[in-house]
Amino acid sequence: MGLLFRVRCAAALAVSSAAALLAPAAGQAAAPRVAEGRPVVVHRTVPGPGRYAVTVTARSAGATRLQRTLTVQVADRRWKLTVHSRRAHVTRIVTVSSRRLRIRLQVTGGSVSLLRVAAKKRPQPSAPVSPPAPAPASSPVEAPAPTQAPAAPQIQLPSITLNVSTTPPAIVEPAFSRLVWADEFDGKRGSAPDPARWTHDVGGHGWGNAELQSYTASTSNASLDGSGNLQITARRERVVGADGFTRDWSSSRLTTKGRAAFAQGRLEIRAKMATGQGFVSQLWMMGDNVWDVGWPLCGEIDLTEILGSDTNTTYGTLHGPMADGTTPYATGHGKQLGVPADQAFHVFGVSWNADKVTWSVDGVPYAQETRASLPAGAQWAYAHPLYLLLDLAVGGTFAGTPTQATPSSANLVIDWVRVYG
């Protein structure tokens, strides 16, 4: 998500246990315990700019082996690599350049007994070599040995062992109990959402995330179902958006911009999510000053993002600015739901005040960020009013491209939205 034009970036989050994990594998002390959902960072300096193949290997307690390789160009850019296992865990890796690889590891369920990261420099393409001139017939010579490219140096990062606690970390959540704003979505079937509470973002320019849908204000994409729910529908159809972009998908994004914004409180949304490759259900908040200061300076809190390709995992994320006010960071947490979000309603919650943000599912907190836990140099951009956004996006860098197996339509169903202060 991200304002009107979404830019998704990720940055490593340093934690106190990271330094202990940087010791060489040989003779290292027992690995520290890492609570479920808590990120860990590993970083190493590489010899210099160039192309590197970063290989990540993980082995769960059940001997499930996962491996991914990503080619990165080390020259002031960012990449994101995900190693994923539905059975055991999710490990998210972010590499950041400028001669330093910073790798962020986050286990969100189960356990990892071994996780190894290796970076191997790829040789640069060499100039073509002209073949030798043929020797005279009277002077036979031995054929020259083929030219071999120099061996590529390899940078081996130490092995890392993560012991994941099965006991969730103790989280003290700010107390907000007075209902200050709500929509229960009561109304006739097919009627539009209450215009006194909601407005529409419209258009199909990609929303900063290369998304494939055009958001509309039509009740065919967002309407009440007559049973106390709001239904947001993404539909495969050719549509020319209000901004002139032609897309093959339509959907809807509702916001409270200009209607309601909240400086602190607790937001809860009971919802059932869309399923299918290429869909992502998104419930989030944006700084109400976005039109004045822009993104990421306005700050963004993602209550939940759930991929249609993995409806058993919810992701809660903060997006904000680094010290320069323009470079974005992202720090987030994942949580396994147990019952996938396309099969049952869940209550997704986030509490925030001037100093901390806490995420929960079905009333149970699972992650928290504070001013002190942000990456070094990151600004806290959440101590001012934020407005709400509800949308169902198609495609983009996070959800991926729909396939032939993707349904021609999908629904994000919201029972209610409540804000407590």
Automatic annotation (TrEMBL):
Biased composition (Pro residues): 125-137
Residue stretches spanning the membrane: none
Superkingdom: Bacteria
Keywords: Signal
InterPro entries: Beta-glucanase-like, ConA-like_dom_sf, Glycosyl_Hydrlase_16
PROSITE patterns: GH16_2 (PS51762)
Pfam families in UniProt: Glyco_hydro_16
GO molecular function terms noted in the UniProt entry: hydrolase activity, hydrolyzing O-glycosyl compounds
Annotated stretches, region: Disordered: 118-151
SUPFAM superfamilies for this protein: Concanavalin A-like lectins/glucanases
Limits of the GH16 domain: 160-421
Segment forming the signal sequence: 1-25
Gene Ontology biological process terms in this record: carbohydrate metabolic process
Biased composition (Low complexity): 138-151
UniProt family annotation: Belongs to the glycosyl hydrolase 16 family.
Protein name (Swiss-Prot/TrEMBL): GH16 domain-containing protein
Species of origin: Paraconexibacter sp. AEG42_29
